[in-house]
Structure formats: C-alpha cells, structure tokens
Amino acid sequence: MKKFIAAILAVFGIGMGASAQSAYKNVDVNGFEQLIKSDSVQLVDVRRLNEYKEGHIPGSLHIDVLDSTFLTKALATLDKHRACAVYCRSGKRSAMAASLLSKEGFKVTNLLGGIIAWNEAKKKTVKE
C-alpha cells in the first residue's frame, strides 16, 4: 500500500513539474531569430549593464534580472499585450526572468544558450 501511495505521489509530482515548466517557451537560436523579426515582440537582454555594453542583439532593451528592481522596471517598461523574447549570457538568468515575467501575465520566450549560442551561430550583435 505504501508503494502504491508513493507511486501516485510521484506521478502527481511529475505532472506538477511539467505544468510549471510550461509557463514560458524555450527556443534555439534560429527560432529566436525568427521570433524577434516581428515588430510586435519586445526583445529584452537581462544581463548586467557591462555585459550588455560588450555586445547585445540589435533592438534589445536592457533590464538586469539580478537587480532588485527588475520586476518593477519590467512592469513599467514592457507591454503585457506584446510577446517578450528574453536572453542572457547562457540562458540561466533569462530563464529566471522568463519565469518572473510569465507569472505577471507576459507571453515569454527564452533563448536557449543565450548570447553565447547566438555568437557561436555568428548572428549579429552591436556594442554600446
């Protein structure tokens, strides 16, 4: 009986984990590039300012996810009625940002591999 209950709880836990992961979408470099071609998409770089200045995807807004005011700035700057595409260095911080934004009602897509993958694919960046 204990094994049966443990099995049911395990299935329930897996189901909950799967639904939590569907709050935002992850895409590769090519999918991200196609997405951001649309004028309706808000492109957000969530790295530190010095990282942003070293090179970022053209047209991106800078909102540092590690700044304590990230959510306040994002809510004041971004339009909830427009999709958001977020990226960072490797994809970890942007996943955090994507999670935070999706909880606020944004439709969010995260770049898998971040700017590292973008640069490896020889996609365009600009410096400030």
UniProtKB/TrEMBL annotation:
Q: Which InterPro entries match?
A: GlpE_sulfurtransferase (IPR050229), Rhodanese-like_dom (IPR001763), Rhodanese-like_dom_sf (IPR036873)
Q: What is this protein called?
A: Rhodanese-related sulfurtransferase
Per the UniProt record, the source organism is: Prevotella jejuni
Q: What lineage, starting at the top, does this entry show?
A: Bacteria, Pseudomonadati, Bacteroidota, Bacteroidia, Bacteroidales
